[in-house]
Each structure stands twice: as C-alpha cells, then as structure tokens.
Amino acid sequence: MKKTRLIRYGLLLSLVALILFGVMEVLPAFAQSSSGPLPTTPVAPAPPSNLLDTIDLRKPMKLSELGSPLQLIVFMAILTILPFMFIMTTSFIRTIMVLSFLRTAMGTQTNPPNQVVVGIAIFLTLYTMAPVWDKINSDAIVPYLDNKITQSVAVERGLTPLKTFMLRHTSKQELGFFIRLAKEPQPRRPSDVPLHIVVPAFMVSELTTGFKMGFVLFLPFLIIDLVVANTLLALGMMMLSPVTISLPFKVLVFTLADGWMLTLQAIVTSFNMTQ
Q1: Is residue 193 within 8 Å of 167, Cβ to Cβ?
Q2: Distance of alpha carbon 260 from its chain centroid, rounded?
Q3: What is the pLDDT of residues 211-248, one digit of tens each?
Q4: Which of the residues 36, 61, 66, 216 has the least number of beta carbons within 10 Å of its own beta carbon?
Q5: pTM of the predicted model as reported, rounded to 2 decimal places
Q6: What angle do the packed helices 242-256 and 195-234 form, to 10 degrees?
Q7: In the chain, what are the domain boundaries?
C-alpha cells in the first residue's frame, strides 16, 4: 500500500509540474500579444576591428610579427627542461646513487623516506656546485644584466664553467666513445668538445662512480649479515631470518661510526671543490 501511494503522489506531482510549466510558457506570449510589440531601440553597428584589418589569417605570419609572445613560449619550454639539466649536469647523479645504495645496504627499506633522500641530494648538490654557479654568475649573468655583453656571449661564458666541471669528472673512455659515435673530429682542447657529447659522457661516468662507491658501502653491511647468518646457523636457529637480527646491528654500527657524516664527507670530497 505504501508503494502504491508513493507512485500516486509521484504521478500527481509530475502532472502539477507539467501544468505549471505550460502556464509559464503561455503567459509571456499572451502578455506580449495583449500589450502590443515592445518598443525597441536601434543598436549601433559594431565598429570594425583594426586587428582583423591588419592581420590576414590566410597568410603565414612572420617571426617579427610574433615578437615577445614567441620568446615567452620558448622561455617556458626551456623552463620545463631545467629540472633535467639540474639532474644530469651536476653532482646530483652521484649523490642520489650513493644515498640509495646506502639505504639498500642497510636494509631499512623506506627509512629514510624518499623525500628526505632527495632533499639531502638536492642541498648537497647546491653545496658542491656553488663554486661553478658563482663563476657563471660573475662571468655571464651579471655582465649580461648590466648590458655589457650580448646574449650569445653570456650563454657561451655560462656554459664554459659547467662544461669544465663535467669534463673534470668524466672518464676518458666514455668521452672518447661518444666522440667516435658522433663521428666528430678529434678535439685539440677539452673546451672544443661539444656540449651534446660532454653531457652523456658525464652521465655515464657519474653512474659508474656511484656504483663503485655503492659497492664500497655494501661491504661492511655484508660482513654483518654473514656474521649474523653464521651465528644463527651455529645455534640451530635456521627458521629465523638473519635480516631481522642483523638490521638492528647495522643501524647500531652505522650510528656509532658516525656513518652519515662519513658518507656525506666521502661524497663531497669525491668532487674537486677547487674550480
């Protein structure tokens, strides 16, 4: 009975809504026909746009007509590449690799968290790259802002310290490989090597160095794992995971040896700070 009452009430409400909707539609037309046409005021035609008169969309636009908007688009496109340039042309690669190997060797999984590891790597990169960026600022940015040099000269002066830093930490084998692969002539000086060859060679060299430092970090923790595993095996506790027992010992040894200071000191001193 309740369902039939609800259905009846719904049909009644729908019928009332349709009647009200019809009345609302009829009343404006009835009022207009009874009172006559409403007076209308003449509307002045819109003046022709000067922009449409000067720009013909059927013709290709010249570069001079675009002006600063095109420069703004190019600048915004360059800004999207800046994070990758920061990662691949600085000491960030080696730093983040060593810190990741350290966390894996300790077996702490997510401690410290990824945000902390990346934050340490970023600020340590700012510290190690400070002499290079100071030289770029004094040789390129400040003279360009003072209108003493042109933009092309500022770019050339700015890339020189960065290229020198990358070449200093690039292996000769990787650099020679990319030069041969690009079929470039043998450069007479290190400054003659193009930037598109220096960057990949520097990346591979940094990855290699990071893996070497990671291997050295693994050794003391590997010894702790072997000692704990052999001890548990001698006691007959084969069902107990050695990782569970060795993790507190790893953290204890690493903390007592001031491991964070030693690791960060090794990363910083692996770069030649005298630019």
Answers
A1: yes
A2: 26
A3: 999 898 888 888 888 888 888 778 777 777 777 778 88
A4: 36
A5: 0.66
A6: 120
A7: 68-269
